[in-house]
Amino acid sequence: MGEIVTEALSVSDKWHLKSVDLISTLQHHLEPYESWVVQASVLGDNREAFTFFFPLLAGLHNELGARTLWAAILVEWSNLLLKWMFVGDRPYWWIGETSLYTDETRPQLRKFPNTCEAGPGTPSGHLMMNVAMFYVITRGISTEFIWKWKSISKCKKTVVAASLYFIYFLWIGVICISRLYIQAHFIHQNILGIFMGLVVGNFAWNSPGIVRYSKLKAVLMAAFLITSAVSIYTLLLSKGMDPLWTLPFALKHCARVEYVRVDTQPFFIMTRFTGTALGLGKKLGT
């Protein structure tokens, strides 16, 4: 890659360039493990919170399952609004569009089917979801199972709990690397995703009433979520901004057009978190 004079660049462009360098390094050194690295983003996909982890946890512990699902709902909602607010590019199309590279210096990085998320990149939704969801799960398992385990000593409980947290941190690290490797995110988008995930996860864990909503409260919550999202969408349109501005870039720069994912589009996401909130409220209210 040719040298680029960075002194006159904006902070965001500097982060973009550093991220591209890191992505290039990761793709070079981790190529023997590529299938595993790419698969991590598949396993950590947001939809798994709704289709796999919630049913599994609800079967083990109703309240923990409900709390985890509320965390997932709040992540989907807040991530959508934040992405509209921050208007962040993704590496896989930014590299092809930026004028910072010439045809000779433009990096040729590998793309994958799950690279092609069509929404804005800031913050990382994968990291928000995994940080928030597994924060609730880790604290829930520690509180409800490990510390109530009567047949082992306090020292052993501490070791088991610490091991669980270590696995949690390790998994978040794997997701970070995977999101960079497949060109889905820049470094700063991952960092912001981790921070916001902790905020949402902490809120979901420390809000006692969130798992005791009546049907009415759940309907009102779902109405608030969808109304706020549609209102922001309408406001952006009224200001001459296109909330779907990223879709042409995704269609242009994905390795294959059919890889562009429908479930990363705003209205699909709104339908998912609103319907889930209504369904959960009906269940909790019975």
TrEMBL record:
Residue intervals passing through the bilayer: 159-181, 187-206, 218-236
PANTHER family named in the record: FI19814P1, GLUCOSE-6-PHOSPHATASE
Chief location bin: endoplasmic reticulum
Keyword annotations: Endoplasmic reticulum, Gluconeogenesis, Hydrolase, Membrane, Transmembrane, Transmembrane helix
Enzyme Commission no: 3.1.3.9
Record keyword Acyltransferase present: no
Gene Ontology terms describing biological process: gluconeogenesis; glucose 6-phosphate metabolic process
InterPro entries: PAP2/HPO (IPR000326), PAP2/HPO_sf (IPR036938)
Gene3D superfamilies given in the database record: Phosphatidic acid phosphatase type 2/haloperoxidase
Assigned GO CC terms: endoplasmic reticulum membrane
Name of the protein in its database record: glucose-6-phosphatase
Topology with respect to the bilayer: Multi-pass membrane protein
Protein family (similarity comment): Belongs to the glucose-6-phosphatase family.
UniProt subcellular location: Endoplasmic reticulum membrane
Annotated ranges, domain Phosphatidic acid phosphatase type 2/haloperoxidase: 65-205
Pfam families: PAP2
Listed pathway(s): Carbohydrate biosynthesis; gluconeogenesis
Organism: Scylla olivacea (Orange mud crab)
An example molecular function term from Gene Ontology annotations: glucose-6-phosphatase activity
Lineage: Eukaryota, Metazoa, Ecdysozoa, Arthropoda, Crustacea
Keyword check for Hydrolase: yes
SUPFAM superfamilies listed in its UniProt record: Acid phosphatase/Vanadium-dependent haloperoxidase
Enzyme class, first EC level, given as a word: hydrolase
